Amino acid sequence: MDGQVQKRKRPIIVKLNRESTRTVILQKTRSLKGTNILIDENYPKEVQEERRKLIIKMKEARNKGHKAQLRYNKLIINDELYKEKDTHQNEEEKKKEAMKQQSKEDCKRKSPEQNRFDEQVRKITRSNTKTNK
């Protein structure tokens, strides 16, 4: 390896003592646009996974014309805060609503005798009450 130039680009991790220094450096990264230098924060694995999912939502929101930005593991769309967990809750609510709708449709389906389910239940309860008397 002596005398050979390393072709692979390797990241450099910098630890800073002051939050203010980090803020100044990250604010000045805009001046590096168009160069081969990238400065970004290093996040824990869990946060990186959340951010990957939220980036997709952020891009969708931007394509729709909304103002969207990602901060740590939080997505802000039009000054409203969204978390990755919120999107999962919305998906689960949609699934529950679809299941309710399906059960309503099942109740409206007609039996082979062309009776709706609720009519069948009424007939059964009527016949049971007559036989119990």
How is this structure best described in words?
Residues 80-122 have a biased composition (Basic and acidic residues). Residues 80-133 are annotated as: Disordered. With 133 residues, the chain is mostly helical. 52% of the residues lie in helices and 9% in strands. It has a 3-stranded antiparallel beta sheet. The longest helix has 25 residues, at 84-108. The radius of gyration is 29 Å and the shape is elongated.
Give a concise summary.
Residues 80-122 have a biased composition (Basic and acidic residues). With 133 residues, this protein is mainly alpha-helical.
Features of this protein?
133 residues, 4 helices, mainly alpha, single chain, three-stranded antiparallel beta sheet
Topology overview:
Layout: H1 19-27, H2 45-63, E1 68-71, E2 74-77, E3 80-83, H3 84-108, H4 117-132
Antiparallel strand pairs: 1-2, 2-3
Given as residue ranges, the uncertain stretches (5+ residues, pLDDT < 50) are none
- Strand tally: 3
Compute the average pLDDT: 78
Helix content: 40-55%
- For the biggest β-sheet, the strand order reads 1-2-3
First-to-last CA distance: 99 Å
Shape: elongated
Radius of gyration: 29 Å
- Hey, roughly how much beta strand do the residues contain? 5-15%
Largest sheet: 3 strands, antiparallel
| H/E element sequence | HHEEEHH
Q: How large is the count of helical segments? A: 4
The chain-level structural class is mainly alpha
Biased composition (Basic and acidic residues): 80-122
Region (Disordered): 80-133
